Amino acid sequence: MCSHQKIIIGLFLLLSDNVNAESLAAFSSDGCSHFPDGTVTEIKLWCGCCIAHDLAYWQGGSRAQKKQADESLRECVFQSTNNQLLAETMYLGVRFGGLPIYPVWYRWGYGWDYGRGFQVLNTKEKQLVARRLQEYSSIQAKSFCEFDYPPVIYFKQSWRELVEKWSFKANFLFLQQHIQH
């Protein structure tokens, strides 16, 4: 191989590493993808657990890092709810549903182009992750869990109205039974 071919290949490898590192999308989260963020009465009870989990999933990494992220989600949900069944259900869902082989927005390493798999981040990629997170925190004043989007507002209002309606009916029936006797 000639020296100019070595230089061209070297430049290509150097540039391809930079292009790959720059392909990290801005961080985004939808809370607990395809799963409630909380209970009917506390609709964002474990949402923060999912945001932390999404941070790990967005940047990706090794199989061991995915396992650690999934275990951290399970522990956080359990600590938030004291509900082992819920924590285990969510854990199993992300262990199998969040694999990098799926071409979905919530897969392991979803910040990178599809096909990355289980790759440990190199120094440049870690620096890019840090930069993207800094950009996110400077632009996004609130996390997903702190927003009340129109469907959430509607759900809260509907739920309150339903509870008030049934509370009124229950009180009315209680009074009606006691007045008759």
Count of domains: 2
Low-confidence stretches: 6-19
Global structural class:
mainly alpha
User: Beta fraction of the residues?
Assistant: under 5%
What can be said about this structure in brief?
The protein is mainly α and 181 residues long. The chain has helices at 3-21, 47-59, 63-81, 84-97, 123-139, 150-180.
Describe the structure.
This protein has 181 residues and is mostly helical. It has two domains: 3-147, no CATH class; 150-181. Helices cover 62% and strands 0% of the residues. The protein has six helices and no strands. The chain is elongated, with a radius of gyration of 24 Å.
Give the arrangement of secondary structure elements.
Elements: H1 3-21, H2 47-59, H3 63-81, H4 84-97, H5 123-139, H6 150-180
Helix pairs in contact: 2-3, 3-4
